Amino acid sequence: MKETKVIGETSLREGRYVYCVVDSGAKLRLGNIGIAKAEVYTVPHRDIAAVVHACQSQPYQSEDANKVMEWILSYNDVVDGATEQFGTVIPFSFDTIVKGDDIAIENWLGRSYEKLKHDLERLCQRAEYVVQIFSDQDKLVEKILAENQALRELKQKTSQMPERAGYLLRRKFELGLKDAFNATRAKLAAEFASKIKEHAEEMEIERRVSHLPENYKDKKLIVPFSCLVHKDKVKGLGQALGKISQEGYAVRFTGPWAPFSFVKPEEI
Amino acid sequence: MVIKVDEGNLKQGLLGLVVALVEIIEEALERQALRRIENGRLTAEEETRLGEALADLNEALKRIKKENDIEDVVDSVIDGLSEVTDVFLNPERWEEEMKKT
């Protein structure tokens, strides 16, 4: 047991798990709030600091899905807590581990200081909000058909044809509808973007839409945005989204989140 | 992160991927067939034969999906691919759309 402990202590000095970088030069102990109850603390350099815990320099991996979920939740809690305590953070993705000890972290902060400080200023008073705009699929199809006579006629024709013989004509209708649907979606996405743009400092398309609540599953996602929003503009964004919702679209507006979509850790 | 793969998962995933790719090719063939018909390059008989062949292919794919319970896997592969390729995700396309309005 004693031997295991010594090995553990040695390996604990190998790496630092980096949660985020904060706009504060304070050296603080934040308690055992990290992944697997690890002690989280700050490593400062000038007026910025990295929020870290000591770990082995290898990623956290497990086949136990519950354990992984627990780690991810702890990691999120630390980033959220840091956002609350320090105001602005540059979040790092799950399992970002720097090889070396606190001095290695300090050296890294020193080398990347200009870039990190610039990012902290860019993100100051701003947070990420996710805006997903949905439409009722049937309503959208209705709208497309109302505007497209050729598709309406095709639909009428195919409804009178037998299954196998009418296959190609039916596909002509389905593919025509699909193309019209995508064109409408692109047009709507552009319209929504122009209405939201003035309220966001930066906008991105969410490339991966992970989990959607049950009540959105039967709707068609038109476009998912990630927006970097200044705290003074959140109300305006909410009002703009309210107007979109009054036009008959379902709008899912979540946040504030740490600005994951607006930092590029690989450039730091 | 380690992804746990068992035999059932692997079969469903692989078959789902293959069927999804066949469905994408099927759509390309259908679009090509419709273009040929519109251009008047097929006789009525050829048109019928082509339509029936594509209908049979579609029927066979439906059966394979149902028998192997891979409808959801195929849909998610196709959705994932269209996320990548869809023009609606192209901001340049938006610019064009905005100019039109």
Task: Provide a short characterization of the protein structure.
By secondary structure, chain A is of the alpha+beta class. Chain A folds into 2 domains: about 1-125, no CATH class; about 125-265, no CATH class.
The percent range for strand residues of chain B is under 5%
Count of DSSP helices of chain B?
4
Distance linking N and C termini of chain B: 46 Å
Identify the most extensive interface between protein chains.
Answer: A-B, 24 and 29 residues
Could you estimate the helical fraction of the residues of chain A in percent? 40-55%
The total count of strands of chain A amounts to 10
Return the string of H and E elements of chain A: HEEEEHEEHHEHHHEEHE
> What is the C-alpha radius of gyration of chain A, as a whole number of Å?
25 Å
User: Total domains of chain A, how many?
Assistant: 2
Question: How many helices of chain A in DSSP terms?
Answer: 8
Describe this protein's structure:
The complex is a heterodimer of chains A (268) and B (101). Chain A is elongated and about 75 Å long. Chain A has two domains: 123 residues, no CATH class; 140 residues, no CATH class. Chain A is an alpha+beta fold. The two termini of chain A are 40 Å apart. Chain B is mainly alpha-helical and 101 residues long. Chain B has one domain. Chain B contains four helices and no strands. At the A-B interface, α7 of A face α1, α2 and α4 of B.
